[in-house]
Design a protein that fits this description.
The protein has 872 residues and is of the alpha+beta class. Helix content is 40%, strand content 13%. It binds magnesium ion and zinc ion (2 copies).
Length: 872
């Protein structure tokens, strides 16, 4: 195929000139019949072979090429009467209102017209099309619309009305109304002089107003609307062909009716029918027009639907492409693979391949892969010769092909450990939704993901599926490795803290390990460290610690020492009660603040000092340590975690009784109108506020009691370390759920003057408005359960709606920001070079390089001072 290189200098949108349509056309369609008795397309029909062919074996009668090679050629239909182009209806309506129906001039004075033409010309020359459009709307259209009398011929123009869907009426001064057919509209538009058309935004060369009314309809080539042969041998035509048949048939009948001088009413009906068919051929989604349907009742897909929207040609076929070398599977967790690895089933690895070029250094290895063939792992599926020929490796030919292998050939080998792939989860709402992971081939059928990498993907393991794609070129692999790899994205560009981090058992495990009184005998300590995959130097450090302990007469290591094995020797860190000196944890214990994702200040610090690769490897080891210590220690959650001493329960009961009493008092005062007056609030509002105040105070007090008396247990451990839940959840289990609210207010609807039929009408006690006095443990009363379920259901429905809404919002934001970038001079610009911000974010800060949005100046000073001190 001959390749022609051309550069697009611009794109011009214009109306189709009827003369151009005729010139473009290779056939005038004159019959609605498609095929003759032998099944051969009829000449002059809609499948005329001059417009191209889709059947194999036939040749196009215009260019002589067979199906697939011929791009197709347009035909045309001469319409018996002009019809409106439905997509231009608003412009036709505007134009009808602003031009004089007698002389065709714009209803503007000569001065106004000159001014408008000059201004539009200026906008056009500088490419400011939006400004030109706005000017025409604001000046030309508004002025001319407000005049009835033509300043040029003094004709008193009638009022024009558009009645849905596409009928125009003129109403004169006396209220006399008359239908205005497209023929008449077209003849008015034809009269518009070139200068006046210019002021309307038409350029007279590429677009003329009268072309908005169709006199000739282009018929798309056959390959645009191919027919398909069903399994039954029947031929099924494309929707467009069906619609065109309707148009041709109606057009023919209209033609005959006019020729034979049929009554006006018959002609008008046929005219309207033709208009309907042409309109729904172009756009079948118009409001107010009944949808054109197949015999089955399925609506016909129109031209507009083919092009626009999510499933249209542009967004579906042109902007987005499905990609090869990809796989999708359910994900499951694995803490034993690296955080930046992905576990891949053998079955997937045998299907997805990487093209590897044969050299003298790898030829033996690659020969072995070819000999293994497509079924034995690690093998290969194809080889490609230097002249581009592709050979499929089979059981029978693999020895032969292995023999032929020479440097310069390419082997498409199976995925191997250490290959890099793209891994992603939808919806991809930020750039961390697709990252580079290293392959680890594992048995099983799921993709394995390290739990620490869940946050960036927003993944969990309740059945989530994720996709991989294997980059096929060196460039793509290099980009994956250096730009997209997970370790380069551990710090979120959104808030400047780590987004990969420990969760749940890792946090409680490390917390327990790093308690001041944790003592672990040497053998257990060694086991723990080994389970966390230590490096050579870390083992040395462990030995050092054991030696030191022995010298001090200990037969154990402290938990802090075990944790410190993995800290770099020169690490100095102090934050949130944790103190690390020269690579040893001296004070404090590790909890969510240090290592949890979206907090993780310790990981953040290590990332800064030792780089992404180290930070990731460190996290991996330390998380393993946490997991294994948790195994060793074991924590349990049991109902006895929620047992408070009788003393505490008594206090809680007292608090609730006290609150009840207070509520009763407030109710009495309210009934006797004795509540304090607050400006801007009704008595009822004051009453409700006071009651809510009392109740929420009671709940806070209960929370304090629970915090004070709750026994140390698995449950409280999770809350204290912030691994999962907080102490308020415990209070809800032990005592009271508190006020249930619905969309920011009390629960207040249902029957007349009451929520539920079990309450007395007009009862204003908070328990009738969603106050839940019971806790989860003792169980809720029926009406409490009802109140509790209500906001739950509301939230569920809200989430369903919100995801759809936020999806669309995301699309709009992404589109608006699409071509905006930070220029090398620090300004934010769009692709035309226009400055949008003088400084990125107006403070020049890139969140990814900050500590939670702030520059850690204190930390930098501290570090420098320490260095200076050391040098002394
Ligand atoms: Mg899920
Ligand atoms: Zn052709
Ligand atoms: Zn006039």
């Amino acid at each position: 195929m001959e390749v022609v290189y051309k550069k697009i200098s611009g794109i011009k949108y214009a109306l189709l000139n009827p003369e151009a349509i005729r010139k473009l056309s290779v056939v005038k369609i004159i019959t609605p019949e498609l095929y003759d008795e032998e099944g051969y397309p009829i000449r002059g029909g809609l499948m005329d072979p001059r417009m191209g062919v889709v059947d194999p074996g036939l040749r196009c009668e215009t260019c002589g090429k067979p199906a697939g090679k011929c791009p197709g050629h347009f035909g045309h239909i001469e319409l018996a009467r002009p019809v409106l182009h439905i997509e231009f209806l608003p412009i036709i309506y505007d134009t009808l209102q602003i031009v004089c129906h007698q002389c065709g001039r714009l209803k503007l004075t000569e001065n106004e017209l000159d001014f408008a033409v000059r201004k539009i010309d200026r906008y056009k020359k500088s490419g400011r099309w939006t400004r030109a459009y706005k000017f025409i709307k604001k000046f030309v259209i508004t002025r001319a619309k407000n005049r009835t009398k033509c300043p040029n011929c003094n004709y008193e123009n009638p009022k024009v009305e558009l009645r849905k869907p596409y009928r125009f009426y003129v109403i004169d001064k006396d209220g006399e109304e008359r239908r205005m057919f497209p023929v008449e509209i077209r003849s008015i538009f034809e009269k518009i002089p070139e200068k006046d058309a210019l002021a309307l935004g038409f350029d007279n060369v590429n677009s003329r107003p009268e072309w908005m009314i169709l006199t000739v309809l282009p018929v798309p080539p056959v390959p645009v609307r191919p027919s398909i042969i069903l399994e039954t041998g029947e031929r099924a035509e494309d929707d467009l062909t069906h619609k065109l048949v309707d148009i041709v048939r109606t057009n023919q009948r209209l033609h005959e009716a006019i020729a034979t001088g049929a009554p006006q009413i018959v002609v008008e009906d046929l005219y309207d029918l033709l208009q309907y068919h042409v309109a729904t051929y172009i756009n079948n989604t118009l409001a107010g027009i009944p949808k054109a349907v197949h015999r089955s009742g399925k609506p016909i897909k129109s031209l507009v639907e083919r092009i626009s929207g999510k499933e249209g040609r542009i967004r579906y076929n042109l902007l987005g492409k499905r990609v090869n070398f990809s796989a999708r599977a359910v994900i499951s967790p694995d803490t034993k693979i690296r955080i930046n690895e992905v576990g891949i089933p053998v079955e997937v690895a045998k299907t997805l391949t990487i093209p590897e070029r044969v050299t003298e250094w790898n030829i033996e290895k690659l020969k072995q892969y070819v000999l293994n063939g497509p079924d034995r792992y690690p093998g290969a599926n194809y080889i490609i010769s230097p002249d581009g020929k592709r050979f499929t490796i089979t059981e029978d030919n693999k020895e032969l092909l292995a023999e032929r292998l020479q440097p310069g050939w390419i082997v498409e080998r199976h995925l191997l450990n250490g290959d890099i792939v793209l891994f992603g989860r939808y919806p991809s709402l930020h750039r961390l939704s697709i990252m580079g992971h290293y392959v680890r081939i594992l048995p099983g059928k799921t993709f394995r993901l390290h739990p620490a990498a869940c946050t960036p993907y927003n993944a969990d393991f309740d059945g989530d599926e994720m996709n991989i794609h294997v980059p096929q070129t060196e460039e793509a692999r290099a980009e994956t490795k250096y730009l997209v790899a997970l370790e380069n994205h551990m710090i979120s560009p959104r808030y400047g803290l780590t987004i990969v981090g420990g969760i749940q058992d890792v946090i409680t495990g490390l917390y327990l390990l790093t308690q001041d009184d944790t003592r672990i005998e040497f053998s257990k300590a060694v086991e723990l460290v080994y389970l966390a995959n230590p490096s050579e130097s870390e083992i040395e450090k462990l030995v050092r610690f054991i030696k030191r302990a022995k010298e001090e007469g200990r037969d154990y290591l402290t938990g802090k020492e075990i944790f410190s094995v993995f800290l770099p020797d020169d690490l100095i860190f102090e934050e949130g009660g944790v103190k690390i000196e020269d690579g040893e944890l001296k004070e404090g214990s590790i909890d969510a603040l240090m290592i949890k994702s979206e907090k993780g200040v310790l990981i953040r610090y290590i990332y800064d000092k030792y780089g992404p690769r180290f930070a990731l490897e460190w996290s991996y080891k330390v998380f393993l340590l946490g997991v294994h210590y948790q195994y060793l220690h074991g924590i349990t959650v049991t109902p006895s975690d929620w047992d408070l001493p009788e003393e505490a329960m008594k206090k809680i009961r007292e608090i609730l009784e006290e609150a009840d009493k207070k509520v009763q008092e407030i109710m009495d005062q309210y009934k006797h109108h004795k509540l304090p007056k607050v400006p801007g609030r009704s008595e009822k509002q004051v009453f409700e506020n006071m009651v809510q105040q009392v109740l929420s105070e009671a709940l806070t007090e209960i929370g304090e009691i629970v915090k004070k008396y709750a026994p140390i247990s698995g449950t409280t451990l999770m809350a204290i370390t912030k691994a999962r839940g907080d102490i308020r959840d415990l209070a809800q289990i032990i005592s009271a759920l508190g006020q249930q609210s619905f969309r920011g207010g009390l629960i207040e609807f249902g029957y007349k003057k009451r929520n539920l039929s079990m309450f007395k009408p007009g009862d204003i006690h908070p328990i009738t408005k969603g106050w839940v006095k019971s806790g989860y443990r003792e169980g809720l009363k029926p009406y409490e359960l009802f109140f509790h379920a209500l906001p739950g259901r509301d939230a569920l429905m809200d989430t369903a709606i919100r995801t759809a809404k936020s999806g669309y919002l995301y699309r709009r934001v992404a589109h608006a920001l699409y071509e905006i970038y930070v220029h090398s001079d620090g300004t934010v610009r769009d692709t035309t070079g226009r400055v949008i911000q003088l400084l990125f974010g107006e403070d020049g800060m890139f969140p990814q390089k900050t500590h939670h949005g702030k520059l850690d100046i204190d930390g930098i000073i501290k570090e420098i001072l320490k260095k200076v001190e050391k040098e002394k």
